[in-house]
Amino acid sequence: MRAVVLVGGQGTRLWPLTDEIPKAMLPIGGIPMIERMVSFLATHGITEVVLSMGFLPDAFAEGYPNGNCSGIPLHYVVEPEPLDTAGAIAFAATHVGINDTFIVQNGDVLTDLDIGTLLATHRRSGAEGTIALIPVDDPSRFGVVPTDESGKVLGFVEKPASGEAPTKLVNAGIYVLEPSVLRRIPAGMRVSVERDVFPAMATEEALYAMACEASWIDAGTPATYLQANLDTLSDPAGSVVDKSAQVAASAVVERCVVLAGASIGENAVVQDSIIGPRVTVGASAHILAHSVLGTGAVVAEAEYLNNQCRPEVT
Predict the structure, then answer these.
(1) Average pLDDT, the chain
(2) Looking at the whole model, is its pTM more than 0.85?
(3) Is pLDDT above 70 for 271?
(4) What are the catalytic residues?
């Protein structure tokens, strides 16, 4: 069983962290996000992973130069130009010759859902594609996916108004697809699997879904990336601090991610924020409320940042 993992996006929601690091290579609890995803796939019987890349592809080859991650062979496929999600799936799958049932996972999804059950559900239904669905408290932030009793997808409702959603189930970003889906995607064109391919399949009653009760997070925003890191800790007020970072004994660092080579000065206060690689935080500075500092950024002594982004130093 092979899986295509979509890691080609520019990660704009996580700017400025992603100026020089692809989103899927950012660490979660000290381990690159892609490595956590590949390990998850490996525990569910995936034997090869195809990385569909576009933005900063060399970072993956540099991170895994022997083409192996968590004991799983990696295949690197680089889009010649941005092809959107469906275009990227088709380009990668065709490039490596996928001709059997395969898995697709978005490159910012961290979950423990049971792919084996998803695959079994897919095979029982005889569907051309099956989507994993996850319940969320506030579906107005997502596109929801209503289904009938058999799991057949009835359509897609994008960001319904609060209280008006037909279901709280949203696309979890993990799919089982038959190779016939690839023939639905014009070669070399920008095509969205969520907006173009899946709605067409639903109209033809070829798309099913399975609701999953599982942990799940889309770690593609500062808030969710921070939360994904904090979820690796037992202390809810703790922080994830890279071993190469330097934090002054008098500094207060709570519910933060502090990446490699960062330095936090005396009496600084850093809360609920992300401190990028090689960032310097001056003495008595305050960095609060989901502020994000890009690679090498400098915060002056006693400077105050609240819910702000500071670009990397070039």
Answers:
(1) 92
(2) yes
(3) yes
(4) 159
